[in-house]
Amino acid sequence: MYTRRYETVTLSRDCPAVHVPSGETGTLPAGLEVAITQDLGGSFTVHAGGNLYRIAGTDADALGREPLPQPELPASATDADVEALVWSQLETCYDPEIPINLVELGLIYDCRVTNLGDDKRRVDIQMTLTAPGCGMADIIVDDVRSKIELIPTVVETNVELVFDPPWTMDRMSEAARLAAGLM
């Protein structure tokens, strides 16, 4: 849940983190006090020492939080069921600086689920970013890939970052425009 109120917590252990917006990786030490500025989609943006950092959901315990539950499919899931779950997972992906998911921002250009037989599927995604020079590009693409690969039966995920056509605010959903104060 996104809130503008910051929650201050103390890291319970050394924690891998990514500097926002440069994308440089490092480790925040145990005992460091951080302010959680964004808690969306299972990852966290924290403020520490005058900088912002992204902490992955797999490290939620360092913040005293629980990771998101794993996505589930019924045993008789169809390709349409898998595609619906893919879109649901994409809605849990956020830019660490923007409290609106990638789907609502209009950053997902194409998503295709291919049945490979033997209850195995491949997912191909074309997506973009709000700014081509974003230092968080690799982190955001990896977040998309890793969340799709959590889906049962998905054995391969290809995420292609494209910049043609360029993203504009016109691609944002009405809800995203409202949340961003553009309406």
What this model shows, in words?
The chain has helices at about 80-90, 100-105, 135-150, 175-180; strands at about 5-10, 15-20, 25-30, 35-40, 45-50, 50-55, 110-115, 120-125, 155-160. It is α+β, with helices and mostly antiparallel strands and about 180 residues long. The protein folds into 2 domains: about 5-65, Roll (SH3 type barrels), CATH 2.30.30.40; about 80-180, 2-Layer Sandwich (GMP Synthetase, Chain A, domain 3). A 6-stranded antiparallel β-sheet has the order 1-4-5-6-2-3, with no helix packed on it. The model has no long low-confidence stretch (mean pLDDT about 90).
What's the CATH architecture of the largest domain?
2-Layer Sandwich
For the record, the CATH class of the largest domain is Alpha Beta
- Proportion of helical residues: 10-25%
> Which sequence of SSEs, written as H and E, runs from N to C?
EEEEEEHHEEHEH
Number of strands: 9
Amino- and carboxy-terminal Cα gap: 22 Å
CATH topology group of the largest domain: GMP Synthetase, Chain A, domain 3
Going by CATH, the homologous superfamily of the largest domain would be Fe-S cluster assembly (FSCA)
The geometry reads as: globular
Largest sheet properties: 6 strands, antiparallel
**How many DSSP helices?**
4
Oligomer: single chain
Taken together, the total number of domains comes to: 2
Strand order of the largest sheet: 1-4-5-6-2-3
Unreliably modeled segments: none
**Strand residue content:** 25-35%
- Report the radius of gyration as a whole number of Å: 17 Å
Average pLDDT, rounded to a whole number, is: 91
Question: Which structural class matches the secondary elements?
Answer: alpha+beta
